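WP5 quarterly update. Target: Outer membrane translocase Tom40. Source organism: Thecamonas trahens ATCC 50062. Length: 324 aa.
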Amino acid sequence: MSDSAPSPAPAAAASAAPAPTEAAAAAPAATPEQAPEAYVDPLPHCGGFEEYSREAMRIFPMAELFDGARLELKKPINMAPQFVTSHTVVMGQTTGGGAEDGSEQYMFGASYVSQDGSMALISKMDTMGILRAHIIKQWSPAFVSKIQGRVSSTPGETVLNIDLDHKGDDYAAQFKLVNDQALFFNYMQKVTPELAFGAQLDYYRARMHSIISIAARYATMNWVATAKANSDNALTVNYMHKVNDSFSMATQLDFNANSRDSSFKVGYEYLLQSGKFRGQVDSAGKIGMCVQESLIFGIMLQLCGIVDHKKQVFKFGIGLTIGG
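Structure tokens (predicted):
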């Protein structure tokens, strides 16, 4: 009898075993509020309407290429390190915001960033008397205002832009005024962690003309696909693919149904140990390449090349940035 006495104990233990299993199975269901946290990504993954295809645009270098030589010296003020002055000498042509094409000039710049990073003041003036200024103020984590101005003695070349940006948890809205002659309002809404849609209304006062644009964006960890169409029958499609941590490629297709014109370009970016190499080729036969390399003591070297096979134009640029 003593040998059979312990047998009921395992049976009782077996009958009691399902209880903790059922409790463990019910545990995840008791906290359903955790699911939305994994579903909603922060807004920077979506961004605003103007930057809906920022990953692809970052790869194409053509807007930053220049011909000739450029030297820029940046120096912070010792007594106020948030205040930085710059001296820039440009010789040759440029395609991205600097000297006018074919000019040789000097530009003086000054910038100030508050200690908390909520305000930035940036300005540049060149020897042609053109003043460019930017004022950026972050009033709250969700609201930012921007004022961009270009003052010139030439009639019709003075420009003033005012931007008001608002960012929510899963959306972004922007209002822009350009010289009281053009109004822009856009809105971008995230639908899923990968998918976002947006729309923009452009109104031009002088022509009494308005344009409506819609955009879609689908982003994953390794690739981003975007498309934008407007009421003027223009379509733009972008695709960016991250091959690995160092190499990425991007494509863009533009099509206008009214004129039956289309264009296509392919770009690539390769990250170096202390720099990057970017290039692009388009359907018009134009090739552009740019190498940026960080040297010692805060020196940045930039080499640019532009080849236009159709026009038989060949350009080369070298730039050096010291400090900053």
